[in-house]
Structure formats: C-alpha cells, structure tokens
What does this fold into?
Amino acid sequence: MKIYITSPLSDDNGNFIHRDAVITNFDDVLARTKGRPTQALFEEKHIPYVFRWIDDHPISDFVPCDTGEFLMTGRAKEALNDLLTPFGAFYDCTIDGDPYFNYISWNVIEPYDLSQPLENAKGIVKHRFNELAKSQHFFRVKRYPVQFVSQAVKDCYEANNLTGLRFRLVGE
It folds into this structure.
C-alpha cells in the first residue's frame, strides 16, 4: 500500500495566530487516552490551537494548525467520513463561531527518540510504522505536525476537489 505524508498547504506568509477552538463531544477521546497526560488537555472544552489564517478566514477545506489533527470543513468531513471513521473520530468544532470538524486519530505512534528524524526511525517506531502502513488509511506520529494517509485517502481528496493539503509519497 502506498503511504503519503500530508501536511497543510498554505498560500500565506506562514505566520500563525492564536484562535480558540471550542470542541464538543470528547467523551470517546477521554476513554481512549487511558489516563495519559493528554487527558488533561481534553478535560476543558475550550482548547487553544494555533491556526494559520488568510485575511482572518481559511480559504481551503483544511485549516492549517500546529497539532497532528485535521481541522476541516463539513464538505471535507463528508467526503472522507467513510475512510477515516474506523481510525479516529470527528468532533464538532467552532472557530470564532464558524462550524468545523476536528478529526482525531486513534492510531498514534509514540516515538522514543524525538531527536531522531522520522525517515531514519528505528526499532519500535519503524516496526509500528510498517505495521500501520500495511492496513490503515490514516495514522500519525506523536508530536509531529504531519499525518500519514493511504492512496485511498489521497484519491478521495482529489476526486472531491478538496483543497488545503499537500501529499508526498513516503520515500521520495
């Protein structure tokens, strides 16, 4: 299976500004954190994210942010829902009152050596990456602001004329 690294595509100057995202329905996420430190982040519904905006409004289906999650419009959620739902959950989200969806993956690789580039990952990280790459449509590495998606996700993105992401084949 081909795996792509995806990251936000932006036409602006790359500056990030702070916005508050109000995300609801975190019960399922809380259950899956199993007491990890991230649970504290989800206990409050007002979660600060750092977003990249153009003229105070996003111009694409995916909103670039500094986390490993996908923030997207309803159009993007509808297109990718069937592919992504088995690997995570969509949560209602409003950004400055506008409706969006926050996709949080349950497939997260936790690297033991964060100083090591992902391309040179060894041991458990590489084994887990290879395991997920064989069967999953979406996964990510903790603390890296990119996601890994299958050819099916890339094809769906292109077929529905979605905007806001770029794809690079792993190994290129």
Summary: The helical segments are 27-33, 39-42, 74-84, 123-135, 151-159.
